[in-house]
Every structure is written in structure tokens, then in C-alpha cells.
Amino acid sequence: MKIYNDLIEFILEYGSANLRYRVYKEILGEPCDSDKMMQLQEEILKLPKVKKAFSVQKESGFLGNVIHGIYFDGFDSTVNLLKRNGVELTNPNMQRAKDSLLNWTDYEKDHFYKGGNFMDEYGRGGFRAIIADLLVELGCDENEPMIQTQINYALEHFEGALLHTSIDDFTRPVRFQGKNVRYYIKDCKFPAANHVQILSKTSSWRSEENIEMVRRSYEHCKKIASEYDGFIYINCGYLLGPFNHNWKSGIIDDVHAFDSNPIDFAWWMRSLASATETKPITYEPTSGIGQGILDWIFSDDLLSELTDEHIRLFKKFASLEPAWRKKESMLCDIYFPIVLGIKKSGLADKC
């Protein structure tokens, strides 16, 4: 417990406003309306990335130019950036962003609309699925029809998957770009990443019966998915995707598990530092943090275990500190995801 608390104190002493705010809020439970938190929120709104994100907001409230894209162009990634940096949903510009989606009428002009509609037909990560997910992220009432529709689709896919006994029941093999991959059979039910996400982020569906069905189906899907280690696409005359959920995600016990693919270290750390509130949908939820990771983060020479490529990709895709001019800033960036993961998984007493 002492070492865990030492890392928290380190971030509070050396971290930027966004990290300190999130530690106070998500780990220490500080009320967002306290004088200290309101001052930190003002500092967050002055951060260069936050100012740039709000600078691309249209008069309608829409963030960026398209619903799905990169930072400052895509609505989805820009919302993600703002939330990860600690911007509160009560911020007037965040409310304007939510309202812009609820009142969006010219969505057919969006570059993702045509392809997204194909995905919607398969119920896998489509145009409407992204809008529903964003509305949840922006704090919209779950009774909003667009959200309820996606929740119901997700439940249908989890329930339908219980009828399958093999990967061949809902996918077909195909050769694509020189690789053997698979595509979903249309109208066959099997949950993809968007179904897992919408259920993890919402509560209105959580009757005892539904929770038990989803948990049972999740374990069933893991077993079936173990037959195949590749990508699964949508076939709409051409392949879109991939759209399979990572059923094998589990505990990471060694930072060197990422040595063969350093970008995965950045994505894993970024997932630990997510600002999205979720609730488990599995029998045995896990943060993914094993004892080996705890030993690494609590060591005095943790940076020596990371290659230059690990650090470069982490800084590019997962960093929250505005700059790494000091070693302390880099350490705060690396400490924060693990500390937050420890808190969320209830591991603090073991540290």
C-alpha cells in the first residue's frame, strides 16, 4: 500500500494539471466542485491539446469534421482526447457536442456514412453504433432511442452466440491481401467489440437474467474464438474491418510481453488510463495487471526495461503530459495508467 501511495504522491507533486485532476477525482474521490478541482479544471482548459480540440468545434457544437477519424478531425477521437485530459462533461462545449449529435440532420454527408451503413446492417461498429457510443460517452440519458437500439442489438448478438458451437457457424474463410482471414455471415449473431463496449458502459439492461445470459455467453464466445487467432471482417462486396473483439485479453504479467510489438504497450497503457466509466460484464473481471507489472512499476529502474520504441510509441499515442522536458513528467505519464488500473481493480491493498 505504501508504494502505491508513494506513486500517487509523486504524480500529485510533479504531474501536469490533467493527471493531478484525474488522480484526485478517480483515485482519491475529491468532489469536482471543490475549489482545488475547479482551479485544476481551469488549468486543464488552457492545455494546448485541449484548446486545439475546442478550436475545431463548429457553431453547431460538432467537434471536427467527421464522426470517425483522427484527433481534431474525427468527433470520436476528439471527445476521447478531451475526456482523457480530464475535461468534465458539464463543460458547456461538451454539452454542445452532445446536443449536436442529438440534433444532427445532415449526417448523410459524412464520409463514413456509406460504409457505416453497411456495418450497421451487420450490427458491427457502424455509423449508428458510433453515434450511440459517443452519446453514452457524453453522458446522454440511456433511454435515448439511439442508445437503446444498440443495447438491444448487443443483447441479441450475445444471446444468438449461445447457439453456435464452432467458428464456422457464423464466419467463412477467405483470402485477403495475401492472408487467410474470415468474414461474418450476414444475420448470424456473434458479439463484436462495439457490442462488448456498449454493454460495459451502460446499466439500463442489467436485469439478473440479462447479466447471467451475457456472462454465460461471454465465456462461450471465448471458447469458440479460441479456434481462430486472426481477423474477422464484414463482406459487403469488399471487406471492411476487422471487427472482432479481443477475446484473449487477460492478465499481462511482464512488460516484455510487448517486446515483439511495441505499439501494443501504448494501446494497453492507454486502455488502463481510459476516462470511460465501465462496469464488468464477465464472471471474473480483471484489470489485466499481473504481479510482474506491479514489480516493474514499483522498481527504481523501470525505464531501463523499456526500449526506445516502446517509449516513442507510448509518448505518441498514450501520453497525457504536455511535454517531457523533465524525467519526472515521463514517469508521471507512465505511473498514472498503472496506478489507475490498480485502483479500478481493487489491487491497492496488495501494493
Description:
By secondary structure, the chain is mostly helical. It has a domain of 128 residues. 49% of the residues lie in helices and 5% in strands. It has a 4-stranded mixed β-sheet with strand order 1-2-3-4. A hairpin with a 3-residue loop joins β3 and β4. α2 crosses α3. The chain is globular and about 55 Å long. The chain starts with a helix and ends in a 6-residue tail after the last helix. The relative contact order is 0.11. The mean pLDDT is 92.
Keyphrases for this structure?
mainly alpha; 4 strands; 351 residues
Extended strand count: 4
Strands side by side in the biggest sheet: 1-2-3-4
Can you give the mean pLDDT? 92
| pLDDT < 50 stretches | none
**Helix and strand composition category:** mainly alpha
Characterize the biggest β-sheet. 4 strands, mixed
What percent strand?
Answer: 5-15%
Number of helices: 15
Return Rg in Å: 21 Å
What would the principal axes of the Cα set say about the shape? Answer: globular
- Sequence of secondary-structure elements: HHHHHHHHHEEHHEEHHHH
Percentage of helical residues? 40-55%
Distance, first to last CA: 4 Å
